Here is the input.
Amino acid sequence: VDWQSLWLRGGFPDSLLARNEQDSFDWRQDFMQTFLERDIPALGMAIPMPVMERLWRLLAHYHGQTTNYSKLAGAMDLSVPTLKKYLAVLEQTYMIRLLPPCETNLKKRLTRSPKLYIRDSGILHALLEIEDYDHLLGHPLAGASWEGFALENIVAAMPRYRPSFIRTSNGAEIDLVMERGERKVVFECKLSKAPKPSRGFFELIDDLQPESAWIVAPVDETYEYREGIKVANLTAVEKLSRH
Here is the structure.
């Protein structure tokens, strides 16, 4: 299976291996319905299905953004504690990831809210009603979708590392910081054949001094962007991460 199909359809085998895009999309729609109607009540959660469905669809539009609980609660007409309870259900069932901010003692003001991702890219695309690859590439959330897709694959490839992200109050950011003891490896995800990270990315690398830094992009060959920073595709990054 090529990475384009994996990104579009997500990692559920029935979706990924479906005969065509329509069958894959239909399978994911059915899966989401079953999850809402059967799986959540089976967990003993008394959550009204229309509310959960609305929340799930709303979260797809916030994919890759820092979580503003009061804004989300306001949009859903829920209290913040109720919203957090519903998010916890989606997190515990592996539907969403709340990526924590990096615990570091930089002399900078850092964002303290987690970033929110729909964990399976295929489910994200079903929630956004993206049915084929051309539609995906043209979508305003294509870059955020790529970021979440790359992030989930890297996190899975590095199970002994702790994932987080870092963003300063003036907007400098690194998408993914993987830590284990004193070791740090950082990743920036760019949906571009010629990725250009922001100045803030390089400033944070100087501050964090990671063991290695990667820009994950849909490129054909791995190359050095500048000393200590490499550009590579997801397959190459996963291989190296496993070592």
Observations:
- The longest strand covers residues 173-180.
